[in-house]
C-alpha cells in the first residue's frame, strides 16, 4: 500500500507538467477535479509559490472553459462544512499557498462543456500588480482525493 | 473397544474445541470497551429510525424498510457541491473497492447520499451524478425539505441552505460532514465525524461489525 502510494505520487509528479514561471510566481500541480457530466460546479487546485520580495495578491481568475471562477475556502464550523468566499488570496513573499481538496479552492461555475480527465484548461490569474498569467490546469479523475498527499514543504 | 472409541471421540472433540478456542483467542474478542475507544461514536443501543419516504436516483421509493438486510453508510450532501461531496463520494468509492477486494466473502455495505437540496437535486439530476462515483451507490432525494428533515432532525444532522435571494440558483448548502452507519436491522448503529479517512473507517467498521455479529 505504501509502495503503491509512493509510485502513484511519482506518477502524479510526472503527470504535472513543469511549473509555470510568471515573474517570480511559480504555480505547480494545477489540476481540476473531473466531475460527473451533469455538474454545474467544479473545483480546481494548485500550489502557488511567491518568490518575489514582496507579498502578492491573487485577485481574480477566469477561463474560457467556465462561466465564472471564484476563490473559496472550505471550513468546518460547528459541525457544518461551509465554503467561505475569498475576494482575494494573499501569497506572502517567499512563501506559498496550497489550494487543496476540503481547503482553499478555485470554485469553477458553469463549465461550457463537460471536461474529461486528461484535458487541459487554461485559467488566467490576475494579480494585484496588474499582471496576469495564463496557467494550464489538467483535468484529473480522483479515485479518492483524500489519499492524495502533497509532500510539499 | 467402545471405551477406546469414546476416548478418541472425546480427544477429537477436545481438539476441535481447543482449535476454535485458540483461534478466537488469537483474533481477540472485541469488547464493548474496544468500541468506546474508536473515533466513531458507537451507540450502546442502536437507535430505531422513524418512518421516512424518499425516492432513489432511479425513481424507486426508498423507506426505512429499504435499509434492512445490509449495513449502510449514509452521507448528506448535494450535487452542486464541488469540493467536499465529490471528495467524500470518492472516498466512499475507495471503501467500496476495498471491501470488494479484501473481503469478497462478505456483503459489500450500501453507500447512500441523501440530498439536502431537494429543490435542485431532482431524481434526474441524481441519476446523472451518483453512478459516476460507483454504479452501486444510492442517491436519495425528496420533493420537499420537510421529507429530508424527517431524517436529519431525528439524527441531529445540521444543514443550511444559504440562498442569497429567492431567485439565487447558485446557492451553497452548508451541511454536516458526518457519516452515519445503519446496521442490517435498519437501526442507526454508529456515527463517524469528518474529516474522513477511508482506511480508518474500514478498520473501525470491521471491528463494529465483528462485535455486532458476536452478540
Ligand atoms: Cu467552493
Report on this model:
The complex is a heterodimer of chains A (153) and B (215). Chain A is mainly beta and 153 residues long. Chain A has a single domain (21-140), classed as PCu(A)C copper chaperone (Immunoglobulin-like), CATH 2.60.40.1890. Helix content of chain A is 9%, strand content 53%. In chain A, strands 1, 2, 3, 4, 5, 6, 7, 8, 9, 10 and 11 form an eleven-stranded mixed beta sheet that branches. In chain A, a hairpin with a 4-residue loop joins strand 10 and strand 11. The two termini of chain A are 23 Å apart. Chain B is of the alpha+beta class and 215 residues long. Chain B has a single domain (30-214), classed as 3-Layer(aba) Sandwich (Glutaredoxin), CATH 3.40.30. Chain B has helices spanning 2-27, 32-36, 84-102, 123-127, 130-133, 145-155, 198-214, and strands spanning 41-47, 53-56, 61-63, 72-77, 110-115, 138-141, 159-162, 172-176, 179-182, 188-192. Chain B has an eight-stranded mixed beta sheet. A two-stranded antiparallel ribbon of chain B has the order 7-8. The longest helix of chain B has 26 residues, at 2-27. The model of chain B has no long low-confidence stretch (mean pLDDT 88). At the A-B interface, strand 3, strand 5, strand 6 and strand 9 of A face helix 3, strand 7 and strand 8 of B. The structure holds copper (II) ion. Copper (II) ion binds next to strand 9 of chain A.
Amino acid at each position: 500500500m505504501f509502495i503503491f502510494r509512493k509510485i502513484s505520487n511519482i506518477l502524479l509528479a510526472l503527470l504535472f507538467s513543469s511549473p509555470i514561471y510568471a515573474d517570480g510566481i511559480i504555480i505547480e500541480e494545477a489540476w481540476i477535479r473531473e466531475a460527473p457530466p451533469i455538474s454545474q460546479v467544479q473545483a480546481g487546485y494548485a500550489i502557488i509559490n511567491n518568490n518575489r520580495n514582496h507579498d502578492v495578491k491573487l485577485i481574480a481568475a477566469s477561463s474560457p472553459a467556465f462561466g465564472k471562477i471564484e476563490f473559496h475556502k472550505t471550513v468546518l464550523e460547528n459541525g457544518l462544512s461551509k465554503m467561505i468566499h475569498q475576494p482575494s488570496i494573499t501569497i506572502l513573499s517567499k512563501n506559498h499557498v496550497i489550494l487543496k481538496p476540503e481547503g482553499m479552492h478555485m470554485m469553477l461555475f458553469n463549465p461550457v462543456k463537460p471536461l474529461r480527465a486528461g484535458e487541459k484548461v487554461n485559467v488566467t490569474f490576475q494579480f494585484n500588480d496588474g499582471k496576469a498569467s495564463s496557467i494550464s490546469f489538467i483535468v484529473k479523475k480522483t479515485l479518492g482525493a483524500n489519499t492524495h498527499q502533497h509532500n510539499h514543504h | 473397544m467402545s471405551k477406546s472409541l469414546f476416548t478418541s471421540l472425546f480427544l477429537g472433540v477436545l481438539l476441535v474445541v481447543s482449535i476454535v478456542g485458540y483461534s478466537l483467542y488469537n483474533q481477540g474478542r472485541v469488547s464493548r470497551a474496544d468500541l468506546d475507544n474508536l473515533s466513531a461514536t458507537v451507540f450502546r443501543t442502536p437507535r430505531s429510525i422513524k418512518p421516512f419516504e424518499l425516492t432513489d436516483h432511479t425513481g424507486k421509493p426508498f423507506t426505512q424498510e429499504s435499509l434492512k438486510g445490509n449495513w449502510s453508510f449514509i452521507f448528506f450532501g448535494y450535487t452542486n457541491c464541488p469540493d467536499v461531496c465529490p471528495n467524500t463520494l470518492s472516498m466512499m468509492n475507495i471503501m467500496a473497492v476495498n471491501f470488494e477486494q479484501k473481503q469478497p466473502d462478505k456483503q459489500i455495505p450500501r453507500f447512500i447520499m441523501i440530498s439536502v437540496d431537494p429543490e435542485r437535486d431532482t431524481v434526474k439530476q441524481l441519476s446523472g451524478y451518483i453512478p459516476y462515483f460507483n454504479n452501486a451507490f444510492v442517491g436519495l432525494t425528496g420533493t420537499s425539505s420537510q421529507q429530508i428533515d424527517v431524517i436529519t432532525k431525528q439524527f441531529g444532522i445540521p444543514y443550511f441552505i444559504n440562498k442569497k435571494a429567492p431567485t439565487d440558483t447558485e446557492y451553497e448548502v452548508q451541511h454536516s460532514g458526518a457519516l452515519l452507519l445503519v446496521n442490517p436491522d435498519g437501526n442507526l448503529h454508529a456515527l463517524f465525524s469528518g474529516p474522513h479517512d477511508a482506511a480508518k473507517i474500514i478498520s473501525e467498521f470491521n471491528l463494529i461489525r465483528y462485535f455486532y455479529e458476536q452478540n
